[in-house]
Design brief:
2 copies of one chain form a homodimer.
Chain A lengths: L13 H8 L6 E2 L32 H14 L8 E4 L2 H12 L5 E6 L3 H9 L3 E8 L2 E2 L1 H10 L4 E4 L13 H14 L2 E5 L24 E6 L11 E5 L4 H12 L4 H10 L3 H29 L3 E2 L8 E6 L9 H6 L2 E2 L1 E2 L13 E5 L5 H23 L1
Parallel strand pairs in A: 1-12, 3-4, 3-6, 6-7, 7-8
Antiparallel strand pairs in A: 2-9, 4-5, 8-9, 10-11, 11-14, 13-14
Helix pairs in contact in A: 3-4, 3-7, 5-6, 9-11
Chain lengths: ~400, ~400
Amino acid sequence: MAFSERVSRLKSSLIREILAAAQRPQVMSFAGGLPAEAMLPNVDWSDMPVTLGQYGMSEGEPALREMLAAEARALGLPCSASQVLVVSGSQQTLDLAAKLYIDKGTQILLEAPTYLAALQIFQLFGADCLTVPLEADGPDLGQLRQRLERHRPAFIYLIPTFQNPSAVRYSEAKREAVAALLDEFGVTLIEDEPYRELTFDGGSARPIAGRLKKSSWIYTGTVSKTLLPGLRVGYLIASPDLFPHLLKLKQSADLHTNRIGQWQALQWIGSERYQAHLTQLRSFYRQRRDAFQSALERHFSDLADWNVPQGGLFFWLTLKRPLDTRTLLDAALADDVAFMPGEPFFPEPDRNPGHLRLNFSHIDPDRLEEGIRRLAVVVRRAQADKAA
Amino acid sequence: MAFSERVSRLKSSLIREILAAAQRPQVMSFAGGLPAEAMLPNVDWSDMPVTLGQYGMSEGEPALREMLAAEARALGLPCSASQVLVVSGSQQTLDLAAKLYIDKGTQILLEAPTYLAALQIFQLFGADCLTVPLEADGPDLGQLRQRLERHRPAFIYLIPTFQNPSAVRYSEAKREAVAALLDEFGVTLIEDEPYRELTFDGGSARPIAGRLKKSSWIYTGTVSKTLLPGLRVGYLIASPDLFPHLLKLKQSADLHTNRIGQWQALQWIGSERYQAHLTQLRSFYRQRRDAFQSALERHFSDLADWNVPQGGLFFWLTLKRPLDTRTLLDAALADDVAFMPGEPFFPEPDRNPGHLRLNFSHIDPDRLEEGIRRLAVVVRRAQADKAA
């Protein structure tokens, strides 16, 4: 069997195994990043034109592209509809970006930690992954400058708003500083913002892409966290120099994004009904965040440190006494608790032990306390074993 | 700007330009491969469960996978649901196969001519494209054996039923012979069957994948030609050795295929209503094929040779006096007629002049005669100019 060289870099299915195990109904899962079922809006399909069953344009539906461009401009990202490409979920943006930029050995720059599925696809294409550490308000600027002075990464991949996994939101000052550095060194920005709308304190900041004066950029978002992930509708907006290449890559990947999901997204985006839904969603998740924070304080305050997330879907715990959290999985699953170990969110997992990513949006609050309690017991037991 | 090496192989947008030009309402287009709008079925969404808005499995919806496996077994392709992967249109199968097999310089084997978009994505990944010529009943077996004796292609890509562009349907004997050769040389088969159900004489033959005894295989199909292309729902079925890799590649490409399209597809596949729709569709396209054949006989009988297609969506014309049909495009479009030049369907376009691919399913019959007449005039004029 002669597969491509890239297949040797296809990652083990650890994450798939966790998520599969978390499907068992008795499991209390903090592992995934699923929206709460209760908050999936009822959608109406009765007015959808039958002509949407026909093939569509690779760029996406014109009306949706106009609406997405208008929304982006309102956020402070100057752009026109001609720069908007509708994609099959923002995961596809990462696939297209990998194809556009990455040969074997191509250097790219990532936050540490970073989004696991991004890391996997960039590595699949053979990227050499450099990292810059995240602080509570964004990247360590000194280290970012140092990386840019020493390397010529093909792009930097950032998730500046409620990052997955760390929940970090960049400060205004760091957004400005990062944009200035990227312009200074002429580095392309890929800015991924699936969680922007899930803000609990009302904060909103201009995208970094909107602050660039010279560098090329791709900004990507999705309706998966705010409307319905099952639609598989996301989008990217790109600087005009990149757009034609991304369009051709999109066409060769899947011709175009499904039009029924695009139509449904257009019924919501920019509407008052969508704003009302987002308000409800934020309030719902804020309450779940608060309940989660209380449970963590009761069971984890002596075991870990964390920042209270101001948006998004995750708590990121740092154990006071680090251990490889992957070794906790079997015990946790045996106790019907699932979580996501932190190590795989780093290009060098073994050098970054001691973090746990806990999703707070999905679990039923009635089972939350018991789940957190059991997880704390698993950690305590492992640390006692290690000390013994 | 440092793009990946692969971007240098992104093809020019000739095809996009033709299809864009063909959008003008006054243009009589034989260029695309669009189903007839009149035959898009009315679909009902009112019973779709709201839970389908949630994230789904990368494999696809379990009930749909079961149904697709049952249909494939009925065709003579032994398989279980665990071998079925739902994809975002069968174009995505080509993307996943390219990722699985192709490094720069990897040899693969294709029919000549072959499906344009397959050629493009295989070349994008850097494939070295070997070809075997098609005859009226399938590939030239002598040349196929010769290629397999001299080379070790990573896979062979075949469209055995109503091929795009040539409309060739493999005979029973050639299906058997091809399967035997692939087993003899241990070459993986990728079998693409978007047009299988669009048969005008009722003929149906067992897939080649179902005849293999040893070789690995990927069989791929879609609902785009029989139900609604806008759903972007296709599928692949793979031998068990390939499936886990394809699943991981699917997950990294777009997590999973949109669930609303999958749900709609499941409402049709295997149902009596679907059979009735297919019967209508075949009859409708057969009539269009007949009208097209009449018009061709009136205007092209002295200019070109062709076989009458027994299924699919295309006539494939071979000019009696070959010329580069790409040079006809400007004149045709100036006369408001669009067609697809044959050259880009070959890995070596310049060495394969003189074919035209004409779609017969989409154009309104009232405009057909005038369109064919104008196209014949364009060809005649070019041949006169060449002779002069």
